[in-house]
Amino acid sequence: MTASRPPELPAIIDIEASGFGAGSYPIEVGYYLPGGEMYCSLIRPEPGWTHWDSGAEKVHGVSREILQQHGKPAAEVAGHLNQKFRGQTLYSDAWGADYAWLGRLYDAVDLVPSFRLKDLREILGDCEMTNWHATRAAVELRLQLRRHRASGDARTLFETFAETRKRCRPDWNI
């Protein structure tokens, strides 16, 4: 039996939330794919989603009012993810939190994800782990993204992965 080969370039997902810990829920989902496709959607809070952390709002800059006005229904966002990623694997740098928030999203609309969510660290080697933080700082400086939002964070993670992979494996081709 052979282990499955990690992807050359992973599909990255990021989730922003109403806060941290018990009661928090997803407010935005974003992804960045090999080839450059990006997606970002605010999520309108479900009726039972009431937890709000002003500290988290200061980080992502999204108010409950903005979510009510511009957020998509949870069922629409979950349906989009299921259709787009059926049978695929998405990677996250905050697997524990993102897994819980995806669970909250899917539970609210009585659906099951059609894809797998894995920790990005599963596909990083020692060299990539060692160089991760310095490379990410350089990527952030280069991209100059002004807002802390899900799709921008996913893009930053993707480009950090690609650059650390190139640095650590010079023979690697994208």
Automatic annotation (TrEMBL):
What broad taxonomic lineage does this protein's source fall under?
Bacteria, Pseudomonadati, Pseudomonadota, Betaproteobacteria, Rhodocyclales
Q: Which organism is it from?
A: Azonexus hydrophilus
> Entry's Gene3D superfamilies?
Ribonuclease H-like superfamily/Ribonuclease H (3.30.420.10)
InterPro entries, alphabetically?
A: RNaseH-like_sf, RNaseH_sf
- Report the protein name in the record: Exonuclease domain-containing protein
